[in-house]
Amino acid sequence: MIFRIDTILRFWVYCSYQNHQHKKASHTRAEMIVEILRDYERTGDAMRYLNAKGQIAWKASPWLISHLADAEREVRQDMEESS
């Protein structure tokens, strides 16, 4: 099964997949990815949409992108303060 996922969300799905892989060994890879994407949709971290070809795809929500930008900004500030 092909999943159309943007780069930011793909990274976080991969991280979640690695964390859940050992806990749910009875699930297939595709089942686990679908479950992770559904969880991300429920929490507002991902959005499902139709791409230009009319295919279902997922991307990081504006909230997740903003949250990640804030976290990156805080890390940069901490690094500058410690230098």
Characterization of this structure:
By secondary structure, this protein is α+β, with helices and mostly antiparallel strands. The protein has a single domain, classed as Arc Repressor Mutant, subunit A, CATH 1.10.10. It is built from 3 helices and 2 strands; from the N terminus they run H-H-E-E-H. The chain has a two-stranded antiparallel ribbon with strand order 1-2.
What can be said about this structure in brief?
The chain has 83 residues and is an alpha+beta fold. The chain has three helices and two strands; from the N terminus they run H-H-E-E-H. It has one domain (7-82): Orthogonal Bundle (Arc Repressor Mutant, subunit A), CATH 1.10.10.
Number of helices: 3
Major sheet description? 2 strands, antiparallel
List how many beta strands DSSP finds: 2
Mean pLDDT rating: 91
**Total tally of structural domains:** 1
**Helix content class:** 55-70%
CATH class, please?
Mainly Alpha
| Low-pLDDT residue spans | none
What fold name stands as the CATH topology?
Arc Repressor Mutant, subunit A
Shape: globular
CATH A-level architecture = Orthogonal Bundle
Order of helices and strands, N to C? HHEEH
**Strand numbers in spatial order across the main sheet:** 1-2
The class by helix and strand makeup works out as: alpha+beta
Percentage of β-strand residues? 5-15%
- Rg over C-alpha atoms, rounded to the nearest angstrom: 15 Å
**Terminal CA distance:** 47 Å
